[in-house]
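Sample A.
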Amino acid sequence: MSELPEYAERVLAVAERIPPGRVMTYGDVAEWLGEGGPRQVGRVMALYGAAVPWWRVVRADGVLLPGHELRALDHYRHEGTPLRQAGPAAEGHVPRLAMTRARWDGTQDAPADVTPPT
């Protein structure tokens, strides 16, 4: 197996540090790293994210990852991640993340080994 690109390693390291029950958007991760953007983070997660808590890196609108909604929902319920109930018009009635309560800024409730880049 080939070595991961350095940027991918950094993205995955952030994903591993997001506390249970909290999320960061793709853009949040890029901003926290000071490099790349939401699309680059999304690409890293799509290619390499299976080995980390991928469900904690999310879309900014709180919509669950298409095709992985039920797996993600199981993780969110187990971890106590804040959710908003879907309205009756929502496809499949799948809830969304309650982003104002679930979003992690990279510092509050941080595991001891997490420090934002300078």
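Sample B.
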Amino acid sequence: MALTAGGIGFGLGRATGPDLLRSAGTSSASPSTSASPNVFTVSGSMTVNGACGSGGYADITLGGQVEIVNQDNKVLGVGTLESGAGGRCSFKFTVSGLPEGERLYGAKIGNANRGVIWHSELDAKHQGFHLTLG
């Protein structure tokens, strides 16, 4: 009888420990190896109708930072203003590696006084951000 009771006790101990989690496809002993989230790229443009890089537009210059943020203002990705078609005050940008699934996506360009332009995920993916100042 002693061996039988010991065998049952051992079996129950194993069934309620980490092996039960392993049999369900998870393990408390090893880190999760879930797939990385789907990501996408946003492209856009910034046009300044005025003297960019000086006066009231001193913060909008070639190489200026572009941030894409979520609804909580968490930065999801960063890009830079590059030369665009149509003159010295027209820029293009691309920001890659943005995670899908956010409620809103916002573009921040220039100083904090410029604010944020918001889009849904669908609009951010398909339309991008095309901004004009002045």
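B remarks: Confidence is low (pLDDT under 50) at residues 1-34. The chain has three helices and eight strands.
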